[in-house]
Write a structure and sequence with these properties.
signal; 4 domains; Chitobiase, domain 2; seven-stranded parallel sheet; 21 helices; alpha/beta; alpha-glucuronidase activity; six-stranded mixed sheet; Hex-like_dom2; 34% helix; 31 strands; TIM Barrel
Length: 789
């Protein structure tokens, strides 16, 4: 007999028994118990339910439906209840009548719980209640039922899924739970963390994350948890401009379509071609349910064409106006062929701020991307206030908003990054915006083992379900469970790094180099003591000790990378940094945690190169470029303060002024080395110069050049042939577009990369020098004037 039919028959049988019990009670002159609202069933009235006692189970488990997800939920419930109680909870196919059942899911089950309403629970909500002696855990969907089981095991029974390889299961001989009726629904309908840990499918299912987009959607799921929301940016459902209007097909005949780095968005021909391409792709995809088809810009800037600029100017100067107008038009064209088509567009970089005088159609979802975020504060606080204003405005003009947040330091996956508490405050604030219905947190998806990576997944998942939960209390709860007796030491360290960022006022951007001001001597010394205490606390527990040492990687990395900064003070204070032992501990922890990247595109060989550099401290020798200037009129900005991308890595170089330089592949077209303007002095206007050399200058092709540019716009740059430089020695190049001034806006900066080098050839960047603009020397003025674009 079909499982759902059996379940309905069982419910009818129990309802009949309940009615008979009521008749008997009336005949006896007593009043029957009041039924739950909306249900004819008789609820239990005790304050708790005893599930097992002294190794004996008082309930059986029964799946109320035959689908794989519901059956998996029932089996998982039986497994964990057995492990908690040491009793054997049997999963049965049919009602045996011997024991009451914990009924997992099933058609109509929700209605038997007084607070259960299908529309109110949505796809992920659930109810838990007693009904005629049985216990019901059910959602409207198999996913809701599975989440009900996992929520109950976690919040009510104390099971904790803390990392892909870490779960805590309590053990008790008498297993009791509250008898109250529970109705739960997440605040955010879409919830996902894109990180190596967040992509672990059992881990995120246990923590009630439902979204599956990007690379994760290309990998199969076990049938029992194959219940993901794949409507947004999943496999086959998201493409950039140049895929939807292919350059290879149209650029030769229509170069004006691709000017400025994006598209001529106001062009009717561009829109027509894009709509035709999308129709073909949607028809080929043949999705079983409507998706939010993604149309996204190229991941760089945009020098707008005249028509797009005019349209933007008419709508508050926001370039997003042209993008939104194009998507609205393209969507209308596509729906002539596919009436239920829906679309998703990012608000990113140049397109982040919403336009004035426009609204977003209901069949378009907007996802603001927080690439400009300062991790040290919430999305609506401090330097993030403009960012928060943009999100709030999108919420006002769009019905469907999903926030793509950035939650990791892409410039240092291992570095201490104090954004745990700000993440919590951000989610609590986003929950107040009624049209923000989803959250996607982009973490370290290139490598496992990043700084507090599992904690971030767990914390974000918790708050996306219930944003009002206290973030500090959640962090303490996690640390106590994951680190055991060392939990209080780790919490103290977490508090310390948040305070360090607040005290120094650092900009903690999505790319923050290792030489950050918050990593002071006092911070690393006291944090090292925190970890010493943590290790002592769990010295007898090899599992917890390994977790502490994995977490200690962050601090060990900073101390090793900046050891020359701390050496003099450490010697004075009698602190033995024990560099050899510390590096050995770091290496062991990296291997145990399966770390493969220490920053975006920076593998472990690049990490070894960085840690091998013996940096020279002290004032050094002023470059000839500034020999006649006062000390206050120039500033050295070393390799450790630069943002590194693509093939860039820091290496030892005896000819560099401090003993180390950035090595960059000359054949890469990426802006591999960038200087952000928050590294400039906070007062004044400054001209910028970069010191470069090519070790194999005689071997590079004649056309090889080094490009120095400043953005925006994308076209401001100077290309200097390697043949005109000083052989293999260091020489200076000017950055165009100055003078520059201090800014925390990471949408602006200076970059360096190579042109025309042979594959495998590299060049070196020692440092930048900032020269006060009104103190320019004849030498600096000549460079700037001679190289003016």
């Amino acid at each position: 007999m079909n499982t759902s039919i059996r379940f309905r028959l069982q419910m009818m049988k129990l309802a009949t028994l309940a009615v008979l019990a009521t008749i008997c009670a009336v005949a006896a002159g007593t009043s029957p118990p009041a039924p739950l609202a909306g249900s004819a069933a008789v609820p239990a009235r005790q304050d708790f339910i005893t599930l097992a006692d002294n190794g004996h189970a008082h309930y059986v488990i029964r799946a109320g439906a035959a689908d794989a997800v519901t059956r998996h939920a029932a089996a998982e419930l039986g497994d964990y209840l057995s492990r908690i109680s040491t009793a054997r909870f049997t999963v049965v196919e049919e009602d045996t009548g011997d024991l009451p059942a914990i009924v997992v899911g099933g058609q109509g089950a929700v209605q038997h719980c007084g607070n259960g309403r299908d529309a109110e629970l949505g796809d992920d909500g659930f109810v838990i209640c007693q009904w005629s002696g049985n216990l019901i855990i059910s959602g409207n969907t198999p996913r809701g039922t599975l989440f009900g089981v996992d929520w109950w095991l976690d919040r009510e029974l104390g099971v904790k899924w803390l990392a892909p390889d870490a779960e805590e299961v309590p053990v008790t001989r008498t297993l009791r739970v509250s008898s109250r009726t529970i109705s739960e629904k997440p605040r955010f309908a879409y919830r996902e963390v894109l990180s190596a840990e967040g992509e672990d499918k059992p881990f995120r299912a246990h923590n009630l994350l439902n979204g599956e987009s990007h690379g994760t959607s290309f990998r199969p799921s076990p049938p029992g948890i194959d219940m993901w929301d794949r409507r947004w940016l999943a496999r086959g459902g998201d493409f950039d401009f140049w895929s939807l209007v292919p350059r290879s097909r149209y650029a030769a005949a229509h170069p004006d379509w691709f000017g400025g780095g994006q598209l001529a968005m106001m062009s009717p021909d561009v829109r027509r071609v894009m709509a035709q391409e999308i129709v073909q792709r949607l028809q080929a995809l043949n999705a079983l349910s409507p998706i939010w088809f993604g149309i996204h810009d190229m991941d760089w800037g945009w020098d707008m064409d005249a028509a797009s600029r005019a349209f933007a100017d008419a709508h508050g100067g926001a370039p997003s106006a042209a993008f939104l107008d194009m998507v609205t038009d393209v969507a209308s064209r596509v729906r002539q062929s596919i009436p239920d088509a829906r679309f998703a567009m990012p608000a990113y970089h140049w397109g982040f701020m919403p336009p004035e005088g426009m609204t977003v159609p209901d069949d378009v979802l907007v996802y603001p991307m927080t690439i400009q975020v300062d991790y040290s504060t919430a999305l609506n606080e401090g330097r993030n206030v403009p960012l928060g204003q943009g999100i709030r405005r999108w919420n006002e003009i769009a019905k469907h908003v999903l926030v793509w947040d950035h939650i990791v330091n892409f410039g240092g996956y291992l570095q201490p990054t104090p954004n745990l508490y700000p993440i919590g405050r951000s989610i609590a604030w986003l929950a107040t915006l009624p049209h923000v219905e989803g959250y996607f947190g982009e973490g370290d998806w290139q490598s496992r083992g990043g700084e507090f990576s599992s904690l971030r997944v767990w914390l974000v998942a918790r708050q996306l379900w219930s944003p009002s939960d206290d973030v500090r209390g959640l962090v303490r709860q996690y640390c106590d469970a994951y680190y055991g007796a060392a939990g209080q030491d780790i919490v103290r360290y977490i508090d310390r790094m948040h305070e360090a960022a607040r005290t120094t006022g650092d900009v903690l951007a999505e790319q923050t180099p290792v030489d950050a001001p918050m990593y002071t001597y006092e911070f690393v010394r006291r944090s090292d003591q925190d970890f010493d205490s943590a290790e002592r606390a769990v010295a007898g527990d090899s599992t917890k000790l390994a977790r502490v040492r994995q977490t200690r990687m962050s601090l060990d990395f900073v101390i090793l990378a900046l050891r020359s900064h701390y050496a003099e003070r450490a010697q004075r204070d009698g602190w033995d940094m024990d560099i050899a032992a510390r590096r050995a501990r770091l290496s062991s922890a990296l291997a145990a945690a399966h770390v493969t990247k220490y920053r975006q595109s920076g593998d472990l060989s690049a990490l070894r190169d960085l840690l091998d550099v013996a940096w020279r401290e002290g004032p050094g020798t002023a470059p000839s470029l500034v020999a006649k200037l006062k000390e206050a009129d120039w500033r050295e900005i070393g390799a450790l303060k630069l943002n590194l991308y693509d093939s860039a890595r820091i290496v030892a170089d005896s000819e560099a002024v401090r003993g180390g330089a950035v090595s960059l592949g000359g054949d890469s077209q990426a802006w591999g080395v960038q200087l952000k303007f928050d590294k400039l002095p906070r007062e004044g206007n400054w001209d910028l110069f970069v010191e470069v050399r090519t070790p194999d200058a005689a071997l590079v092709p004649p056309a090889a050049a080094i490009r120095v540019g400043a953005y925006p716009p994308m076209t401001r740059r100077i290309d200097t042939p390697v043949s005109t430089l000083s052989g293999t020695a260091y020489g200076w190049l000017a950055a165009p577009g100055g003078p520059f001034s201090y800014s925390t806006d990471h949408e602006r900066g200076v970059y360096v990369h190579g042109l025309g080098f042979a594959k495998g050839q590299r060049f070196l960047i020692d440092r930048f020098v900032a020269v006060r603009h009104d103190a320019a020397t004849a030498a600096t003025s000549a460079m700037l004037n001679g190289n003016a674009p």
